[in-house]
Write a structure and sequence with these properties.
The chain has 509 residues and is α/β, with parallel strands linked by helices. Helices cover 28% and strands 22% of the residues. It is globular and about 65 Å long. The two termini are 21 Å apart. Bound molecules: flavin-adenine dinucleotide (FAD) and iron/sulfur cluster.
Length: 509
């Protein structure tokens, strides 16, 4: 199963997934996998290809419900309706995807290999080299080919990305067009809503199709709520079907399986484990990283129309700022209108401004961390303690981002930091950011991870380096919650790679 440009995507079927039902269901499988994002889908394909009988359970809807508006994306394709917020010294929205395809349904499909120094650090702390750069290289190579990953093509990059690349080149910075798993992207700029053309290689167009072709079964609209246990051995899971529109309760689902792989994501996995009857020790939910970020928006004389072109297609590495990764930002028009309103720009002025906007999101590999707990109604209770050092790194990244936008053609700029206002050069931004504290920033994060870490000690980690839970037999984790540290690059491809390695171990290969 291989993709190349222009081939195959439009006719490729989505996997057959069962949806809402009022019937109670009792099923058995060799392996039950919870979640169908990068972690769950990659594990399912590996295991089904190796001959295991696999059932996947997914809380979100069976097929992508693309609508060109933020409300539909939040309702159907974002966990907890897009309303997850981490509290602490300031509040920070945390986004995570939902549905058959998980986060890949609504992400920008930016593809990175995990940086070598990060993997070297993991090998040292884990005392295990299975995720070393050398060992993961062939896995990444396979993913590059399988998903059709290559640099954003000029035909679909759009002025928003082109402007950033112009700025990066003019300044001599290290950067350019981003690699993405979007082999048939037509540059419609709506990745956050879902991909209407099928140009994005979200997991529902590849891993899950292949897993189902090899016998896997997907039950969607199905939320897992607890585990079946005998002593300290897991025997399966129980959950319930929920109507995707009304959220009405449907039938109960019981899946008996000798092996259970939890892949509900950086928030979803600890949220479920905390509410369940499993005792996995004190490390569940601890050490959450999120790659927090802020943005800089430039205003050009010419029209940029940032909704035309790849949603996020350019990046750069700011000099001497390791772990700070600015990449193009574009907001859907209605979100842009709200954001400009929050900056004190009246709607009629904002409407005129929006076609001229360009932007860079400044994301950092966080040294700060947070925690995932669960409220009694099952929602995630998220806290995050920001270190001032991380805020200083965001500020420094924003100054470089402003330089790039001005060098690319922006005439003035602004940013969502209270009291900064309009500025015409990066030095003015630097001066105004100097005294700003965390409460002045409007932060955002969409990479929850490291909340059920892999490690060697059951007091400080949840799973062993091979993915097996320290304290419960038959239970594995294989998603973004398992990273021993923050990655510093967009995490979905590394989630797939690690999940493939873990799934082979589950199959005994
Ligand atoms: C807006 C946005 C943009 C992003 N852009 C990029 C990008 O460009 N590149 C990149 O690499 N990363 C990006 N990310 C992050 C990336 O998508 C995630 O890191 C990745 O999807 C995580 O994979 P996962 O398998 O850990 O979990 P997820 O993809 O979150 O999948 C978990 C699945 O589990 C399901 N689930 C949760 N709880 C339960 C339950 N109790 N029972 C059953 N099912 C459950 C969820 O519905 C979900 O489908 C972005 C994320 C967002 C939200
Ligand atoms: S820009 Fe449009 S066509 Fe390209 S991957 Fe995103 S949603 Fe799909």
């Amino acid at each position: 199963m291989r993709w190349s440009p222009g081939e195959g995507v439009f006719w490729r079927p989505a996997p057959q997934a069962d949806g809402f039902t009022t019937l109670d269901r009792e099923l058995t499988a060799d392996v039950v996998i919870l979640g169908t994002g990068p972690g769950g889908a990659a594990a399912a394909r590996t295991l089904a290809n190796l001959g295991a009988s696999v059932i996947l359970l997914e809380e979100g809807p069976p097929e992508a419900r693309f609508r060109p508006n933020q409300g539909a994306a939040m309702r159907y394709h974002m966990q907890e309706g897009g309303a997850m917020v981490a509290s602490g010294a300031t509040f920070m929205p945390i986004a995570a995807g939902r549905g058959v395809g998980g986060g890949t349904l609504i992400n920008s499909a930016i593809a990175w290999r995990c940086p070598d120094p990060v993997l070297a650090g993991w090998a040292e702390t884990l005392g295990d080299i299975r995720y070393s750069a050398d060992n993961l290289r062939p896995v990444y190579d396979e993913l590059w080919e399988y998903l059709g990953i290559w640099e954003t093509r000029r035909e679909v990059s759009g002025e928003n990305n082109d402007l950033v690349v112009r700025g990066v080149k003019a300044l001599g910075y290290d950067g350019g067009y981003l690699s993405r798993y979007t082999p048939n992207c037509v540059g419609c700029g709506t990745c956050y809503y879902g991909c209407p053309s099928g140009g994005k290689a979200s997991t529902n167009h590849n891993f899950l199709v292949e897993a189902c072709a090899n016998g896997a079964r997907i039950l969607a609209d199905t939320k897992v709520e607890d585990f079946l246990l005998s002593g300290n051995r897991v025997l399966g899971v129980v959950g319930r079907s929920y109507h995707p529109d009304t959220r009405a309760e449907g039938g109960k689902v019981t899946v008996r399986a000798g092996k259970v792989i939890v892949a509900c994501g950086g928030v979803g996995t600890p949220r479920l484990l905390k509410r369940s009857s499993l005792d996995l020790g004190p490390a569940v939910g601890v050490g959450l990283h999120v790659h927090p970020g802020n943005a800089v928006f430039g205003v050009c004389e010419h029209e940029v129309n940032w909704w035309q072109g790849a949603t996020q297609g350019a990046y750069f590495h700011p000099p001497a700022l390791p772990g700070v990764l600015p990449h193009t930002s574009s907001l859907p028009p209605e979100v842009a209108l709200l954001s400009l309103g929050a900056q004190g720009i009246a709607a009629p002025d904002a409407m005129e401004l929006i076609p001229h906007l360009t932007g860079l999101l400044v994301m950092i590999s966080d040294h700060s961390s947070g925690r995932v707990d669960a409220w009694s109604d099952g929602r995630a209770k998220l806290t995050y303690d920001f270190s001032m050092e991380d805020i200083e790194r965001i500020k420094a990244g924003m100054v470089h981002a402003a330089r790039v936008l001005f060098a690319g053609g922006a005439k003035w700029a602004f940013c969502p930091v209270a009291g900064v206002g309009r500025f015409e050069d990066a030095e003015a931004l630097e001066a105004r950011l100097k005294d700003k504290v965390i409460q002045d920033f409007t932060l955002y994060a969409s990479h929850p991870m490291s909340s059920c870490r892999m490690g060697t000690h059951p007091e400080t980690s949840v799973i062993r380096p091979d993915g097996r839970a320290h304290r419960i037999e038959g239970l594995y984790l294989a998603d973004s919650s398992i990273f021993p540290t923050s990655l510093g690059v967009n995490p979905s491809i590394t989630t797939m790679a690690m999940s493939m390695v873990i799934a082979k171990g589950v199959a005994g290969v």
